[in-house]
């Protein structure tokens, strides 16, 4: 008995030690990044006294702010559209059978598997040819820009969203949906009131993933952008050639802050929803599950 | 059922037409230009694709205000990243800033327009040695934009001023051993092997495997004993930060970083007497530029005395513009006119020339030498 407890406390100690190491591994570089964003020295990694100057530089740097704005716009649009398309694809693949399903299934994974550079070159060629066709068909002058970046981000994000949503759907029993339809709910009402509430966490996860991937991407963006459409990561990457200054740190800290707020907001939203769910639709789902039992 | 068949057919037709367009393009393409433009004519907004931090945004505003057009500028980080984006077509950019060897490649691929020199009278402002570049004879496709050299920068506060301005500082163990562990070399096969080749008295762009291996052995020996790191981006910062005493690097980077030091006169940059590389970045018009006349006007505007000087004063690289020399910052002039900058004279400078298929040997030898 005694040894068992000692064993347990030993395991527990090892586990918490492991957790501490993992957190150090994650957060030590981030802490350094934040600390050196306040360093009054042009050289990254050399402490030159405390200053807010780099944040002032960020506020005064129009090109950087423009790049940030482009990044945010692209990320939001591509996330919204790829969440809709990805969820629809996931539903189609999980809930229906149709000809060519296997092929479609395999093809959907392709953007996840192929390397970034390949994707980038594909996009480059596609846009330069497609815009030529558009121009000759409609007699207008189009160029690449924020729209083409958004389209290329949707192209890889759809796959990621649909994989996440499918994982959620696969772990979900069909009985509730069948029960709803037994009770003469239309397909739409079944989706709206039974399926949708259950896959919302999957959709939210997919959306966050899409948002992050879009904000991070350099290679694909570089090859599908046009005049006036430089995203933040691409701009920062270009700055490196002229030497890294703590301005990059300050920019990263601002982005980091924004993403932490985003994650906190999504946590708060989920919490609110789960409390709300427990209260309101609980009787409804109770009904559904009892009726599904009765049909069995 | 019918509707879905129709959709499928449409998709196939769309895909085929894209392929057809791709095939059709390659035949009827020739050299584009010169654009039919008057002096100072504009035909719409301007889009520039440039290296990061290479042109003052306020200068763009000035051009925009003077000519009543909008100007946008985006950046790339290497010639190799820019090339496919521009070559594929429909990039939307009017102007690009390729380096010397890349101009040769772009001209061969017919990606640069022939310039309308009648609309660029300020080309006469260029120094004589920039009027006829070897990579683009007669400056037909591209105009020199900025230039610089690569060489050695030394911390004279520690090393002193009494040393031979030679590559022996890094390659001769008798000299370099004193600075062991406090030397950086560029992380670039052509630049670093080029330095060793120059030290040995060979051409920077040799295609002799024997000479290249000899240079590789030299770099390898230095790497094993005295070199702290092969570093391109941080070489200047390591030197001024005090971590290193001798840094192999680019002139403009070094000059800018010297000004960050407590006392800039503690540092000196020079091209060793055996010689070193000179590079020239140029500006040219993209073959499918939406607004070639505005682009031509911009090139002419940039070549004026006032704006040529503003360009150099902002990025601290040397200007090929003779008329602009009077307008340069004192600090920059002091660096550029330092009599000790070029102990080997102008003739010791050599441009890197594309060696074609031999290029991979440089990478291979360099990777082996770094160990």
Describe the structure.
The complex is a heterodimer of chains A (296) and B (371). By secondary structure, chain A is an all-alpha fold. Chain A has a single domain, classed as MetI-like fold (Orthogonal Bundle). Helix content of chain A is 80%, strand content 0%. Chain A has twelve helices and no strands. Chain A is flat, with a radius of gyration of 25 Å. The two termini of chain A are 48 Å apart. Chain B folds into two domains: 168 residues, 3-Layer(aba) Sandwich (D-Maltodextrin-Binding Protein, domain 2), CATH 3.40.190; 169 residues, D-Maltodextrin-Binding Protein, domain 2, CATH 3.40.190.10. Chain B has 15 helices and ten strands. In chain B, strand 1, helix 2 and strand 2 form a beta-alpha-beta unit. In chain B, helix 9 runs parallel beside helix 15. Chain B starts with a helix and ends with a helix. In chain B, 47% of the residues are buried. About 2% of the residues of chain B have low confidence. The interface between A and B is large, with 40 and 36 residues.
> DSSP helix count of chain A?
12
Give the structural class of chain B.
alpha/beta
CATH architecture identity of chain A:
Orthogonal Bundle
Number of strands of chain A: 0
Q: Rg of chain B to the nearest angstrom? A: 23 Å
Kindly state the percentage of residues in helix of chain B: 25-40%
Low-pLDDT residue intervals, each spanning 5 or more residues of chain A:
279-296
At CATH level 2, the architecture of the largest domain in chain B is 3-Layer(aba) Sandwich
Measured by DSSP, the beta-strand proportion of chain B falls in 15-25%
The helix content of chain A, as a percent range, equals over 70%
First-last Cα distance of chain B: 65 Å
> Kindly, what is the distance between the CA atoms of the first and last residues of chain A, rounded to a whole number of angstroms?
48 Å
Mean pLDDT rating of chain B: 87
């Amino acid at each position: 008995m005694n040894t068992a407890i000692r064993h347990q406390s030993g395991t527990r100690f090892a586990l918490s030690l492991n957790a501490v190491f993992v957190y150090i591994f994650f957060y030590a570089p981030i802490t350094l990044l934040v600390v050196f964003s306040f360093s009054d020295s042009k050289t990254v990694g050399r402490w030159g006294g405390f200053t807010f100057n780099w944040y002032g530089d960020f506020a005064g740097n129009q090109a950087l702010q423009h790049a940030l704005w482009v990044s945010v716009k692209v990320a939001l649009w591509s996330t919204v559209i790829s969440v809709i398309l990805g969820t629809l694809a996931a539903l189609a693949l999980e809930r229906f059978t149709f000809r060519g399903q296997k092929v479609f299934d395999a093809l959907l994974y392709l953007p996840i598997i192929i390397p970034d550079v390949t994707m980038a070159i594909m996009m480059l060629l596609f846009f330069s040819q497609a815009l030529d066709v558009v121009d000759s068909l409609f007699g207008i002058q189009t160029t690449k820009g924020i729209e083409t970046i958004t389209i290329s981000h949707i192209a890889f994000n759809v796959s990621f969203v649909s994989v996440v949503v499918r994982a959620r759907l696969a772990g979900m029993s069909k009985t509730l949906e069948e029960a709803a339809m037994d009770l003469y709910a239309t397909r739409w009402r079944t989706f709206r009131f039974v399926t949708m509430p259950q896959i919302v966490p999957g959709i939210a996860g997919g959306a966050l993933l899409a948002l992050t991937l879009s904000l991070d991407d350099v290679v694909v963006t570089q090859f599908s952008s046009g005049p006036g459409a430089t995203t933040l990561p691409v701009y920062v990457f270009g700055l490196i050639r002229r030497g890294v200054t703590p301005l990059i740190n300050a920019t990263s800290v601002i982005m980091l802050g924004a993403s932490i707020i985003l994650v906190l907001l999504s946590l708060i939203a989920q919490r609110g929803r789960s409390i709300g769910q427990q209260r309101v639709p609980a009787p409804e789902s109770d009904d559904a599950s009892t009726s599904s039992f009765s049909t069995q | 059922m019918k509707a879905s068949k129709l959709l499928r057919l449409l998709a196939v037709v769309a895909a085929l037409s894209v392929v057809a367009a791709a095939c059709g393009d390659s035949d009827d393409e020739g050299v584009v230009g010169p654009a039919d433009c008057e002096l100072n004519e504009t035909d719409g907004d301007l889009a520039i694709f440039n290296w990061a931090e290479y042109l003052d945004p306020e200068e763009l505003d000035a051009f925009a205000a003077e000519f009543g057009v909008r100007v946008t500028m985006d950046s790339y980080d290497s010639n190799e990243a820019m090339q496919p984006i521009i070559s594929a077509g429909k990039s939307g950019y009017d102007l690009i800033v390729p380096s010397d060897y890349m101009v040769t490649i772009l001209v061969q691929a017919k990606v640069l327009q022939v310039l309308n020199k009648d609309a660029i009278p300020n080309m006469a402002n260029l120094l004589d040695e920039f009027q006829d570049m070897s990579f683009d004879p007669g400056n037909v496709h591209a105009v020199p934009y900025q230039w610089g050299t690569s060489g050695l920068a030394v911390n004279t506060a520690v090393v002193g001023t009494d040393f031979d301005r030679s590559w022996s500082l890094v390659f001769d163990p008798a000299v370099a051993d004193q600075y062991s562990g406090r030397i950086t070399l560029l992380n670039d096969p052509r630049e670093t092997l080029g330095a060793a080749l120059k030290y040995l008295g060979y051409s920077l762009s040799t295609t002799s495997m024997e000479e290249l291996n000899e240079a590789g052995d030299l770099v390898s020996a230095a790497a094993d004993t005295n070199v702290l790191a092969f570093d391109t981006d941080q070489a200047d910062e390591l030197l001024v930060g005090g971590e290193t005493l001798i840094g192999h690097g680019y002139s403009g980077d070094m000059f800018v970083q010297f000004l960050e030091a407590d006392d800039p006169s503690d540092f000196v940059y020079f091209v060793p007497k055996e010689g070193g590389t000179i590079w020239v970045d140029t500006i040219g018009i993209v073959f499918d530029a939406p607004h070639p006349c505005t682009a031509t006007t911009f090139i002419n505007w940039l070549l004026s005395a006032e704006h040529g000087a503003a360009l150099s004063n902002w990025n601290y690289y040397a200007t090929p513009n003779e008329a602009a020399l009077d307008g340069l910052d004192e600090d920059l002039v002091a660096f550029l006119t330092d009599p000790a900058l070029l102990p080997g004279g102008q003739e010791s400078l050599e441009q890197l020339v594309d060696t074609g298929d031999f290029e991979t040997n440089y990478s291979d030898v360099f990777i082996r030498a770094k160990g």
